[in-house]
């Protein structure tokens, strides 16, 4: 949408005044994006025309892949090759969305690193968090944290990675991401639907009661 | 920030505890801590407590009780201040001096923590402008993860949920002040005692009323009791000059008054 | 451990044969981290000596921040400035590990995309409690209460839910639960360890300046 606006009227023009300019700003966004973003989404956030975004994306993609142009002084600047050599990450456009991934050539090394120390079992913290989500879904991480009394961010990430829970949209009030269990979870539990989970004691606080019981004095 | 000179009420609306308030009072009155004019501070306390009560709500009672603790502490300070230098003779004087030193130390300590808390807040805010790269594992890596070992039956899973969902600790019904007291001393009990004494002889100086107090705590409780009696219009105060002895007059009538009339907020902590 | 081995016997020597070499391989691993990685972990994952890892990390850190060396041909290569200008992200060594962050300058733009990263500011009460725990850890709630002059139960609960503090066992004498700050706290503070917190002692003068300090931070 912003792409239709002439550049001179854009309020976000000052992105060029930041160190590294629009390219660095786009990189900053891409570096922390979990989900691929479309060119329109990136243009809207940076308040730049889509064309400009497209040009920077192409440049970054090329830059990360390594230039063929020789940087004459590269040996002086860096011993491991700099400037024209490919980076360990790449910018890829998959199904219309852009995201930074680790470079495919390093899959073996990265895979080994990821698997190192991984276990086939869920930790007690992960199990408890999963139990809370299963019985109180859809629920935000903040709510689960309030119930468990500890931060559950990394545990929720693990559960999502394991395919046991998934994103269920955002809470209309707080805007927080809500989570629910997946069909893979049901499969592992050997039940047909969440309704088949054993009933809990009726005295436990429900979602409505959470605020009162756990974080009435939230600040 | 919007109001550079907030009034007493505004200041109290965002205080974070008695020490915070005390620091604020000292700052406001531009006074050395040993020269805090008890009368003016007490007036403000009473005004504020009335206001809180008009507004109603339990939180008001909690805050009021905390302010009274500080008022009592100020009294200690003033009493200690009244001791002529080098004339520390009895245990009571020493206790007052110790109370003052202790409060000084605690106040200084609190002030230091308040300052570093400000630094921490600023750092957290600045650091919050950096977002960590924290993306989901790429599908081909996630697929390499070892198959989960799952041994929980639905019943075991439900038991886990039961345990996790059970509230961990009961919600505190009020801001506790027990940590401020070494052992329980009942304000109501002290009010009853002061009521009896004042009905027998009035006026009496505050000094006389606390002369037999066997601990600082009792002095504090009696001070709180007097504020409470004042609010109930059972006593009045006068002070001939700054730093002079405080005279307490009984105005509650004879015989028809009892400590049971006092509000419940100063009942002993369970 | 790998750091002790002579380089020639390392099985991972072929990392140097991949495009971009060890530097790009390390970058690739940095792309999949979901928490700071220590130099030892990275060295083990890449099968390189810790010294080599440390050198590459330092180089990447410097590179992302922008070289001061001029690349003579940079204008020809890129329109937005390349090589010597800072990237949109930075590599930082905090809480004992290395991790990639978006650069602070772009917070306003990046914040539009990161829904979860938005953490509400802590209240004054929470900050004071956090400060006491940070400087006196491990410490019981009762001690924190004594220092702050108020009951801190609910504030402590909130800080735990936010993942800033955690249970550190019980006091052998009183049986009270002790609290300490977490590595997430260090991460949020951008420091390596609690030893890097500002000194408390300079803040312990007399009460002379009390009016000044008190009015300064009133809101």
Annotate the secondary structure layout.
The complex is a heterotrimer, with 2 copies of chain A (219 residues) and 1 copy of chain B (270 residues).
Chain A: H1 21-32, H2 39-46, H3 50-65, H4 74-77, E1 89-94, E2 97-102, H5 107-115, H6 124-136, E3 139-140, H7 141-148, H8 153-161, E4 165-170, E5 177-181, H9 183-189, H10 207-214
Chain B: H1 8-13, H2 18-29, H3 38-55, H4 58-82, H5 91-127, H6 139-142, H7 154-165, H8 187-200, E1 204-205, H9 206-209, H10 216-231, E2 235-239, E3 246-250
Antiparallel strand pairs in B: 1-3, 2-3
Helix pairs in contact in B: 2-4, 2-5, 3-4, 4-5, 4-10, 8-10
The rounded distance between the terminal residues' Cα atoms of chain B is 40 Å
Rg over C-alpha atoms of chain A, rounded to the nearest angstrom = 23 Å
Number of helices of chain A: 10
Which range does the strand content of chain A fall in? 5-15%
Shape of chain B: elongated
Low-confidence stretches of chain B: 1-14, 170-182, 263-270
What is the beta-strand fraction of chain B? under 5%
Distance between the termini of chain A: 39 Å
Number of strands of chain A: 5
Largest sheet, spatial ordering of strands of chain A? 3-5-4
Q: Which structural class do you get from the secondary structure elements of chain A?
A: alpha+beta
Taking the sheet with the most strands of chain B, its summary is: 3 strands, antiparallel
Key structural traits:
heterotrimer; A: 219 residues; alpha+beta; three-stranded antiparallel beta sheet; two-stranded antiparallel ribbon; 10 helices; 5 strands; 43% helix; 11% strand; elongated; disordered N terminus; disordered C terminus; B: 270 residues; mainly alpha
């Amino acid at each position: 949408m912003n792409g239709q606006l002439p550049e001179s009227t854009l309020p976000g023009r000052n992105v060029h005044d930041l160190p590294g300019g629009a390219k660095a700003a786009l990189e900053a966004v891409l570096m922390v994006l979990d989900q691929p973003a479309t060119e329109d989404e990136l243009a809207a956030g940076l308040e730049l025309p889509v064309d400009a975004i497209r040009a920077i994306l192409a440049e970054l993609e090329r830059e990360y892949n390594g230039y063929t142009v020789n940087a004459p002084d590269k040996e002086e600047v860096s011993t491991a090759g700099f400037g024209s050599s490919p980076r360990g990450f790449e910018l890829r456009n998959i199904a219309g969305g852009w995201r930074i991934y680790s470079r495919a050539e390093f899959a073996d090394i990265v895979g080994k690193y990821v698997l190192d120390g991984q276990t086939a079992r869920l930790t007690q913290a992960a199990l408890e968090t999963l139990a809370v989500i299963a019985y109180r879904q859809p629920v935000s991480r903040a709510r689960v944290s309030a119930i468990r009394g500890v931060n559950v961010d990394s545990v929720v990430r693990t559960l999502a990675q394991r395919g046991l829970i998934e994103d269920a949209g955002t809470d209309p009030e707080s805007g927080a991401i809500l989570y629910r269990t997946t069909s893979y979870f049901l499969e592992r539990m050997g039940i047909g639907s969440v309704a088949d989970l054993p009933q809990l004691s009726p005295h436990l606080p429900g979602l409505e009661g959470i605020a009162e019981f756990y974080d009435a004095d939230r600040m | 920030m919007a109001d550079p000179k907030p009034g007493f009420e505004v200041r109290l609306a965002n205080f974070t505890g008695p020490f915070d308030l005390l620091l604020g009072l000292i700052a406001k009155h531009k006074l050395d801590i040993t020269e805090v004019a008890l009368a003016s501070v007490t007036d403000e306390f009473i005004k504020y407590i009335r206001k809180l009560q008009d507004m109603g709500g339990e939180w008001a009672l909690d805050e009021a009780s905390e302010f009274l603790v500080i008022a009592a502490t100020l009294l200690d300070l003033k009493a200690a201040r009244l001791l002529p230098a080098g004339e520390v003779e009895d245990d009571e004087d020493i206790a007052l001096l110790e109370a003052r030193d202790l409060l000084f130390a605690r106040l200084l300590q609190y002030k230091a923590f308040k300052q570093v808390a400000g630094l921490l807040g600023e750092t957290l805010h600045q650091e919050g402008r950096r977002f960590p790269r924290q993306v989901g594992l790429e599908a081909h890596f996630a697929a390499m993860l070892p198959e989960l070992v799952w041994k929980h039956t639905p019943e075991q899973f439900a038991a886990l949920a039961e345990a996790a969902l059970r509230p961990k600790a009961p919600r505190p019904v009020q801001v506790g002040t027990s940590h401020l007291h070494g052992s329980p001393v009942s304000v109501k009990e002290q009010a009853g005692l002061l009521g009896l004494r004042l009905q027998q002889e009035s006026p009496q100086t505050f000094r006389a009323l606390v002369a037999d107090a066997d601990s600082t705590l009792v002095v504090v409780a009696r001070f709180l009791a007097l504020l409470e009696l004042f609010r109930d219009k059972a006593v009045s105060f006068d002070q001939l000059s700054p730093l002079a002895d405080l005279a307490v007059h009984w105005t509650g009538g004879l015989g028809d008054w009892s400590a049971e009339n006092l509000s419940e907020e100063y009942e002993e902590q369970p």
